[in-house]
Structures are given as structure tokens and as C-alpha cells.
Design a protein that fits this description.
alpha/beta, four-stranded mixed sheet, about 45% helix, globular
């Protein structure tokens, strides 16, 4: 799960701890908060845990993940996650050729402006550390499995990749206009917890759904949550849950709809939402 007030990333008072492991170790980061991924840093236990996480989720996504995600995960050799923890450098060769995006390693949560600057420049931050065994079923912050399994496959879809770059530019502007909380809700209900209808079937494309067994089954098969047609303003009015499954999901008709409906200048939206006290 992500930060409660933004789609990720508020670490305004992080302590650099050179004695820390990979998790939250900001001591070796560059000015843009990136860190090198060192494949030798991963233990045999972590490699085994990664494979168990992958196998569990791969068994659930057929018939539940959107066609773009499923095609990438099952049909792209660069995303063969059964081989072990992915090497970002190798994945980047295929990703750059497909959509001109690149993965960058990060030690944990990022400040808003850093995260959005990466997105605006077609760089997706991926956490370099993997959850502990005690966190196998639930983790309170994004880790390597959430970031890679949940987010990276969709970056191979051009229209989605273009939307994410535009979102980065829009978020940087929103921060200046005081609209970041509302735009965070849009991110939450699309990039993290979005659903889409394809060939008459309800499917998932959001990373928070696709990387969580509980959320995936709940979002698609439970009778409890509301599933609403996607609407930009309504999604920005709707508060989200940070530490539980969602009460509400928004359903796209297509990724073209997402790109088109989020293309206008959001400045008037923010003014309306501010007037409403949303």
C-alpha cells in the first residue's frame, strides 16, 4: 500500500542509515534518489520468496487481469519472473524498445516532486528490496514485488505508458496549484486500483489489485464494493482506504478513455473541488 495522502512517496524526514540493508537505506542514493540494483544483494531466501510470490499471483491472474497485462507477463521473455528477481538493466533493454520507459532502482518511498519528475521523464521507480517472510501476505509499503509485478508489465502498453508520463507532468503542476491530494485520488483509483471492462468481462489493470491475492479476488468477485463507471471528477472526489480493501473501484471502458478523459487542463477541476470542500 502507499502513503495515505499521496499515491506514494512522502519521506520528508528520512534518516540515512549506512548500516541498514536495502530497505530504506538512502545512504547510497544519487541526487535523484536512485540507487543501483546489485543482484548479488539478494539472498537465496529472498530469491525463493520472490518465486513463491510470483507463482501464487500467476495462478490467479488468468481470467482476472486485463489483456495487456496478461500478454506482457505471459508472452514477453523480458518479464519471465519465474527466472528469479528481475535484473532491471536487462528489462530496460526491452522496455526502452517498447515504450521508451526505463526502470530506476530506489530505496523506498520518494518525495512527491522526485517521484513525479521520474514519471514525467519516463522513468519508473522500482523499490530494490523485497518484503520479509512475515510480510508475505500483506505489506504496508511498496516493495520490489508490488512495484515490479504490479506496475512494470503495463509499462509495455504504449497508451498506458503515455498516460503515466502525462500524469507525471500533471502532478508537478498540481503540486504548484494545491491540487495534489485530488490528483492522488485519481492515481489511486486508476494506476493502483483500476478496473477495466474488456469483451464484456470485468478485469484488473491496477498494480495494487494485480499484486495482491486478497484485493484481486475481492475487487472482481465480491458483492460488497461499489464498481462505478470511470469519471475523472468523481474519482478525485472519492477518498480511499490505505490499509484495507477498497469500498469503491472505478471501471474503464478502454485505456483510450483514460487517456482522453484525463487530457484536459485540470486547473478548473481543482478550483471546483476546492469550492466544494472535496
Amino acid at each position: 500500500m502507499q502513503n495515505a495522502t499521496t499515491p506514494a512517496f512522502d519521506i520528508s524526514a528520512k534518516t540515512h542509515n549506512p548500516n541498514a540493508g536495502l530497505r530504506g537505506n538512502y545512504a547510497r542514493m544519487a541526487a535523484d534518489y536512485t540507487v543501483p540494483q546489485q543482484m548479488d544483494d539478494y539472498s537465496a531466501a529472498e530469491q525463493s520468496r520472490w518465486l513463491r510470490l510470483v507463482e501464487r499471483q500467476l495462478a490467479l491472474i488468468p481470467g482476472r487481469a486485463c489483456s495487456e497485462f496478461l500478454g506482457a507477463v505471459l508472452g514477453n521473455p523480458a518479464l519471465d519472473m519465474r527466472r528469479g528477481i528481475p535484473d532491471f538493466a536487462q528489462v530496460n533493454v526491452a522496455l526502452k524498445a517498447a515504450t521508451r520507459w526505463q526502470l530506476v532502482g530506489v530505496p523506498g518511498l520518494l518525495p512527491d516532486d522526485v517521484f513525479f519528475t521520474h514519471l514525467a521523464n519516463r522513468r519508473f521507480p522500482v523499490t530494490v528490496w523485497l518484503r520479509e517472510e512475515s510480510e508475505f501476505d500483506y505489506i504496508v509499503e511498496p516493495d520490489l514485488f508490488h512495484d515490479f509485478f504490479g506496475h512494470v508489465p503495463m509499462l509495455f502498453t504504449p497508451i498506458y505508458a503515455d498516460h503515466l508520463e502525462a500524469y507525471g507532468h500533471g502532478a508537478l503542476k498540481a503540486k504548484q496549484l494545491g491540487g495534489l491530494d485530488w490528483l492522488a485520488r485519481l492515481y489511486w483509483y486508476t494506476i493502483e486500483f483500476g478496473l477495466i471492462r474488456q469483451q464484456g468481462k470485468l478485469l484488473a489493470y491496477g498494480a495494487g489489485v494485480l499484486s495482491s491475492p486478497k484485493e484481486l479476488l475481492y475487487a472482481l468477485e465480491s458483492d460488497v464494493p461499489a464498481r462505478l463507471p470511470f469519471d475523472t471528477m468523481r474519482s478525485m472526489r472519492t477518498r480511499f482506504l490505505i490499509d484495507d480493501v477498497q469500498n469503491t473501484y472505478f471501471v474503464l471502458d478502454s485505456f483510450e478513455q483514460l487517456r482522453t478523459e484525463t487530457a484536459p487542463d485540470f486547473a478548473p477541476y481543482y478550483e471546483s473541488l476546492r469550492a466544494e470542500g472535496a
